[in-house]
Design brief:
alpha+beta, Nucleoside Triphosphate Pyrophosphohydrolase
């Protein structure tokens, strides 16, 4: 079903999702003041008549607990960013060299409040494929893709209590099986599942 969706149907479901799905929290029991706005771009492309999502694996840096993780291109909002879309496109350009003019914007999702106190707005866009990307090695170790249909198969993911049940920040975290030797989990996996929920219209 997912691969039969066209651009306009995806846009329509994203619009409907803004009404049906409220903003979410990674850890609903935690309360924060003034979360920092951020955005990620969910880049979609067609390949062999199937949808794929583009991901990055962040470069590892000592002391950065998010380094080495699989993610969507994105980051915090800067003063010059007009809105969430501008943040997502700027970050994607900085991180992987994606030209904003090559992105066909399909819509946005409700923001997610993370335990690191970011309010992350996912922005969905279609990109041409194949295309040449130029990852910034300081931020990005690898760019790769995963078929949307594989991501939509429930057997390929599970929800676990992380880091452990008695931890003060213990929460339910989505973990996907490894794909192409990459592990999608955490906030990016939750955003992926939220996106799939919108696409399935539930």
């Amino acid at each position: 079903m997912l691969d039969r969706l066209d651009r306009s149907e995806i846009s329509d479901r994203l619009v409907a999702g803004l009404v049906l799905h409220p903003a979410s929290q990674e850890h609903p029991q935690l309360a924060y003041d003034d979360p920092k706005p951020a955005s990620v771009l969910i880049p979609m492309f067609r390949h062999l008549d199937a949808w794929h999502l583009l991901f990055i694996r962040r470069t590892e840096h000592e002391g950065d607990h998010h380094s080495g993780q699989v993610a969507f291109p994105g980051g915090g909002r800067e003063p010059g960013d007009a809105d969430a879309v501008a943040t997502a496109l700027r970050e994607a350009h900085e991180e992987v060299g994606l030209d904003p003019e090559q992105v066909v914007l399909l819509g946005e999702m409700r923001p997610m409040h993370t335990v690191s106190n970011y309010l992350v707005t996912p922005v969905v866009g279609e990109i041409p494929w194949p295309m040449e990307l130029t990852p910034d090695p300081i931020e990005v170790a690898r760019v790769f893709s995963i078929p949307l249909a594989w991501l939509g198969e429930p057997a390929n993911r599970r929800v676990l209590t992380w880091p452990w049940p008695d931890h003060p920040q213990a929460r339910e975290v989505v973990f996907y099986d490894e794909f192409d030797q990459e592990l999608l989990w955490g906030v990016s996996a939750r955003i992926t599942v939220d996106f799939l929920t919108v696409l399935f219209g539930s």
